[in-house]
Structure prediction request, 354 residues.
Amino acid sequence: MSGFLSLFRRLEGPQTVGRGRAFWGLFAIVLVAALAYPLFSDGYTVGNTVYFFVWVFIALSLCLIWGYGGSLSFGQTAFFGIAGYSYGILTINFGAAYGFTLIAMVVAVAIAALFAVLLGYFMFFGRIAGVFLGIVTLAVTLMLERFMAQTAGPEWHIGSARLNGFNGMSAMPPLTIPWPGEPIVLFADIGLYYLVLGLLVFVYLGLRILMNSSFGNVIVAIRENPERAEMLGYDVRKYQLITFVIGAALAGVSGVLYTVWGQYITPSSMGMTAAALPLIWVAVGGRSDLTSTVIGTLVVLAAFQALTIYGSQYALVFMGVLLVLTVLIAPNGLVLGVMNWLGRLAIRLTQRAG
Prediction:
């Protein structure tokens, strides 16, 4: 019991913004509103919201690796694509019976994490850091994108799953959950919404606990001064590798859910534009905090989609301008800056009332 309470107390700490009754009261209100949202919306809009939620996982992965760990990775979409393609190959070959789609989700994420172990080992134990780490991860991402784009011929298949080159893979079976009487089939609407929302809340709270633990403190210490952390006896390479693998697994979750949502995956999901967008979401939100990353990602995604619908040629220009303004005006993130300002305002008002 004491262990559970200790775990619960780590939801708050120096590595995360937001604590106390006011924050958790607001969190509960937002969660209740999210749970009630499908009751007041149509299936198409709910499915579109699932699309937004899917991308939050890859944003959180970059927040963990870059914001907390200090290692800028351009390779998150590589893990996204590896997991997405793995899920597609597994489900096309083995179908959805007996809950295999759930097993395929876990296996696909594990494959992405295993690839991160291999890549991360050579990077971190090879002492690759700083801008060179970004270059290596970007090179891996583009290499995978180029490789998958040229697999259009009929010889490129794994079992009955054709890779289809630049057109991508499609026609994966929907996510199916075994259930007494009749299995539950989750298409991109209300059922999948609740599954992804529950997973997002679980990951968010789990990462808060992780970052406020001793592991999180070491990660932040490595970001601030890796030489000092090493002198204190910590194996910096091991902590960086573990953080990288956790982040890769989260990016893999995003890739699997994206494939489940649309029942397709293409090489462009690992291209240059796809690799750059999560950086903008996280930078605008505030890369050093989980809550600001979640809020920033959802806000920027909504703005990006609106611009894509009403002015497609300006959407990417807007994203570039937004990134430049963020770097110049609020290098720690616009959303995080607003959250900190509101926190200071609340403290001043409380002191005056007291």
